[in-house]
Amino acid sequence: xxxxxxxxxxxxxxxxxxxxxxxxxxxxxxxxxxxxxxxxxxxxxxxxxxxxxxxxxxxxxxxxxxxxxxxxxxxxxxxxxxxxxxxxx
Length: 89
Description:
The protein is an all-alpha fold. It is built from one helix and no strands. Helix content is about 95%, strand content about 0%.
């Protein structure tokens, strides 16, 4: 074989090897980006779930306070009626 042919074959072999290395690297980077995105989505979902639980607790507390407020209003009305009765109104 001539030297030029050997050099050309070596050049082709290097080009093919570089192509496959590039594809492997690109696939690895794509997989890494996909994994990072999945981790971010999982973190966001966990955060949203925590906030939902907090909101459920706040909603429950609000409902309890609303009932208690109505009871207090009833007591205040009863006290006002007793005061009016004692003052002869």
